[in-house]
Amino acid sequence: MKHALLSAATALALLPAAQAADTLLPEMTIEASRLDKASSTLTQSASVVEAEEIARGGYTDVTEILRSLAGIEFKQVGGPGQYNYLKMRGFGAGHVLVVVDGVTLNQAGSGDVGNLLSQLDPASISRIEVLRGPQAVLYGANATAGVISITTKRGGAPRLSVGAEAGSLGWQKLKASWQHAVELGPGQLRTSVHASRVDSDGVHKYEGFKDETFQFAADYSTEQIDAGISLWHTDSRFDYAHLTEVTRSARPSYWGGQLPDPNAYNATRTAVLQAYVEHHLSTTLSHRLAAGQTLSQRKSRDLDDGLLGYITAPWDNFTVNWMDYYNQGDAVPIHDSGSPLTAHNKDRSTQFDYSLRYAADGLKALAGAERYESSTRQWGRWGTLKGEADRGSFYVNGEYAVGDSGLTLAAGLRHDDYDVWGDKTTGSLGASYRLGSLTLFANHGTSYRAPTLQQLFNPNYGSVTLKPESGRTTEIGVRQHLANTGLNWEATLWHAQVSDVVIYDSSIANPNNPYGYGQYANADKQRTRGIEFSLAWALDDAWTVKGNYTYTDSHTRKVGADDERTVQIARHKANLGLFYVKGPFSASAHAYYTDKRLDWTGRDWIDDYVRVDVAARYAVSKDVSLYARVENVFDADAPEGLGYKQPGTYGIVGVEYRFF
């Protein structure tokens, strides 16, 4: 550990500048607040990453952008596009809402976005906003930990560019983008088109990742009317290695390893369509109608290829099938566990939202109604399932600046009515108080996670009597902008509790289950608390230091048991980066640290690590730019899940040609 920290410190001293850590500016507009709130008056914590920062970092996936922000961590296993598990403020992915162009992306069947964040094309994104803490009054279910809002490319100054990348593990990428704006009648029409194709190998034989992304947007604006439409579509596939896991009561209690599998893959097609029209009734009052739809089709196949290879028994009486036992050092045959059947899933959601917005005299207010319809289907290897759930919602939200006192009050209330399990009312209260360059803020909000359609309607162990998981979060913080020193910093303390956590209870008698027992039920409780600290320090007009630190204490209380530390959550996480931007050249060095984590067994530990990444970009001319990115420069052992092989040092180089 000491050697890793020394290597990280040396890298930061020798290399010019870092990746996108938290973007902290004295004043930003937070669009995902739906009231275009100023960052200085927010009663919760937020971060923004702009397209320019994404381009300078040379990122190959969105996971690495988000990883550099406070409060967010991942379990990402294997090479590009493989399995990806999001964590935020000690909660899993089901408590983090992801929206693309304002449309909810979380899948109705599972409640999360699956592996999509490791498969998104960063070059198709114009802005990422992260709102931390409960956002139920704005977005409804599944936002206890926060919201990740992604805005795809939008039209602007005329630009046409093409690019290509090559790198480790056979990484190949081609991309093309078009942005344009033209005066049309009384207004302006802005259009954007982006397309890309990725092809990469993995860390094992037969592993690989392919992705095709297409994005289109058109927006038309006049003094009174704003209207637009956007489409984002991705077609991804990754071939994966066979994972064998063995647990026992003695320590170490876990062993895991992978062997190449020639016929195992996951394929996903996801589309997001959005349209909106906003009418400005006056300088202070407007109303907006928005419609959105998501469609996700997933296919998984793992043929039975028989004997895949051999592993070495790590201890005496080692078994993988509870029939054959081996002594330490013996060669153990590993056979495929595949099937001729393909597993299929299809999730669809449609949402309509009407809102009325007012902004004048220190008051910003929003009121609206929403209709959300979702469905899921499953067939093939894992059985048949069909479920639907519809929701009607009413909400109000606003903030009021009390004269010149520096005090801003915020409040929100929302009522969601589901046709399956009932209704839920959530609310929030907050305040911020500005004292010179210093702002104090506090917020209390309630939230919930809706039962997934899998949990409700699975024919073997689903239960339509499930209740939502109910949450409440209190947070206090302080932020400061020192204009004369170029320093911005923010610190937030939070405490969150969730009750009625849905678990799979194997003790429940259930005649629908082939084993006679086992069903989803509300049982556990979860508590997370911690501190987030972020800073950005502009040393001069070229050099900037950015960093953050997160302490997370997350525990789960099972029925009849004491609190237990939540698995796969690090207590300590930190980022430190140095950025350099001067004329046509930018460069970065970034150290990422994550503390040890309990594996899913709750008994074995995943080691802590420090990883150092570097990136650089140079505009050779007004038309040609070259860029490069290297992750894990010192080839540190950076485990994110026991049993999985990681890529080690990984890099790409790219070139972009701009026609105009």
How would you characterize the overall build of this protein?
The protein is mainly β. It is built from 5 helices and 39 strands. It is globular, with a radius of gyration of 25 Å. The N terminus is likely disordered.
Quick tags:
mainly beta; 39 strands; 660 residues; 5 helices; 5-stranded mixed β-sheet; disordered N terminus; 22-stranded antiparallel β-barrel
The main β sheet shows up as: 22 strands, antiparallel, barrel
Separate helix tally: 5
Count of extended strands: 39
- Poorly predicted ranges (pLDDT <50, ≥5 residues)? 1-21
The N- to C-terminal Cα distance equals 49 Å
Beta-strand fraction estimate: over 45%
Give the helix/strand class. mainly beta
Mean pLDDT: 93
Q: Gyration radius, to the nearest Å?
A: 25 Å
Shape: globular
Helix percentage: under 10%
Q: Nutshell version of this structure?
A:
The protein is mainly beta and 660 residues long.
Topology readout:
Layout: H1 2-14, E1 29-30, E2 37-38, E3 46-50, H2 51-57, H3 62-67, E4 72-76, E5 84-88, E6 91-92, E7 96-100, E8 103-104, E9 125-132, H4 136-139, E10 146-152, E11 159-167, E12 171-184, E13 187-201, E14 208-221, E15 225-239, E16 242-247, E17 254-259, E18 264-280, E19 285-302, E20 307-312, E21 331-335, E22 343-360, E23 363-380, E24 385-402, E25 407-418, E26 422-435, E27 438-449, H5 453-457, E28 469-482, E29 487-509, E30 517-538, E31 543-557, E32 563-565, E33 572-582, E34 585-594, E35 597-598, E36 605-606, E37 609-619, E38 624-631, E39 650-658
Parallel strand pairs: 7-10
Antiparallel strand pairs: 1-2, 3-9, 4-5, 5-6, 7-8, 9-10, 11-12, 11-39, 12-13, 13-14, 14-15, 15-18, 16-17, 18-19, 19-22, 20-21, 22-23, 23-24, 24-25, 25-26, 26-27, 27-28, 28-29, 29-30, 30-31, 31-32, 31-33, 33-34, 34-37, 35-36, 37-38, 38-39
